[in-house]
Amino acid sequence: MSRTFRQYSVIPGFGLTLGYTITYLSLIVLIPLSMLFFRTAGMGWERFWSTISDPRVVASYKLTFGASLIATLINVVFGGIVAWTLVRYKFPGKTLIDAMVDLPFAIPTAVSGIALTAVYSKNGWIGQYLEPMGFKIAFAYPGVVVAMTFIGLPFVVRTLQPAIEDLHKENEEASASLGATRLQTFRYVILPAILPSLLTGFAMAFARALGEYGSIVFISGNLPMKTEITTWIITQKLDQYDTEGATAIALVMLLSSFAVLFTINAIQWWISQRHRGVS
Amino acid sequence: MSGDAKVARNDSQLPGSQQPASDLQADVKIRQPATRFRGATEEPVWIRYSLIFLTVSFLVFFLFLPLLSVFAEAFRKGVNAYLAAFNDRAALAAIKLTLITAAIAVPLNIVFGLAASWSIAKFEFWGKSFLLTLIDLPFAVSPVISGLIFVLLFGAQGLLGPWLTSQGIQIIFAVPGIVIATIFVTFPFVAREIIPLMHEQGTEEEQAAITLGANGWQTFWYVTLPNVRWALLYGVILCNARAMGEFGAVSVVSGHLRGKTNTLPLHVEILHNEFNFVAAFAVASLLALLGVVTLAAKIYVESRVRSTSTSEDLSSLDH
After folding, report:
1. From the list A32, A182, A253, which residue is nearest B184 (CB)?
2. What is the value of ipTM here, to two decimals?
């Protein structure tokens, strides 16, 4: 039976390690996650719908998705520039700058949250200059965008860097020798080659921003209907012992982030199919 | 005067070259090195410098300034106020709980990571890529939802809640809940660092060991583990940083009982919400330091991974 399931190998331990892997995976990840579906299924459609379409919840979707989209687009542009600079150029302090990109991964989200709040609030290092000019960052919409950009940046940079490293310079040379300007080369030669990685980075940063909690809740101020993100709404429902309500909204968020990742995978598959005919 | 400058430039650029026979020739020769053409795969200088400027200023202002502000705020009222934040039972209890949580979660995920990578990287079987997707699943789940699912499982109204209550076991709003939520969010770290490397290394060395009479355990201990040790260390570093720093998932299951179920990040939140900013940032500086140490360790381990893999590439050329 096992021979049809796997190829024969002299190396021992397959049954033990795979069995352990699947058991541990089921106990820690699969069974707990499935609770989300079971609990929502027992809730009834009417109550489910009224929970997830409550105006305060809908306002939080708009904020979460809107700010995530803006933040991720900022990250695609600036993350793209950062990745390009780090791969192609030499400058003093490059190793340090490169290491800095991982700061949002390495620093706990609660710490990033209070740090961003301190920097961007009225008396903060950056806020004190922006607020008199009319840009209120902390405790307003832009604060949510800033926090989401902060935590999403490494995803874009770290997926783009290997793709830029793998670019064949011969293609750029060929393009230049055929009379293309550097901008045309970028648009028609470089961009199509790094597009799949750019999309992966986009999807990962966007999905992360959708689910982020710690770095946002301090800087957002959590004003009802204005700066409440959806994950904050879930914790509020739990604090009021409304486990069902929290579960329903959590399911919506979980399915949305899966949908983002799935869509990007589908687009990538479509791109690879289209390019297969050419090369 | 311009002629002098040209000659001078010529001398500095071509040391030891012969003096030009005539002025006309000199002019032709000199102009060639003076005008440096931009390579076909390079951007104009002004674009290069502006991109470097943009990158450095974006990262410094956006990532480094917040990190710096943690320490600035922590020491705002001097060293004594900073140290006072740790002379507090709740803070010490939070440090202890954070260490305990990581001490349980990290080893469990190391064992899982090694088992998963052995089965996935050393064998070919049906449904492998699906299994890989499932292992990565916790990365796609929001921290808050990661906590919520354990409330649904072990909470008072949860599936196992009534039974656990009757047995006198409390998981949610207690230490076990914090540990299990931490295990969930740090689940993939070790496995995903080792699997690609082990897969790349193939099974030849293990087959050789088995042929020479080693048993499975010896093969793993003396052949496979040394080959993946840096990747393992790298995964452990990342896993540990996340285990000590996790906030959202732990916040949902902890119940915020001061001195009992508060980890360091939760303690930071409580202090911040009480407007006790110096203490909040002092405790946060400890976690920020952990982050900086993590980054430094990451750079070191990455350089080791690179050097070992290149030396192995070179040695494989000899055979």
Report:
1. A32
2. 0.90
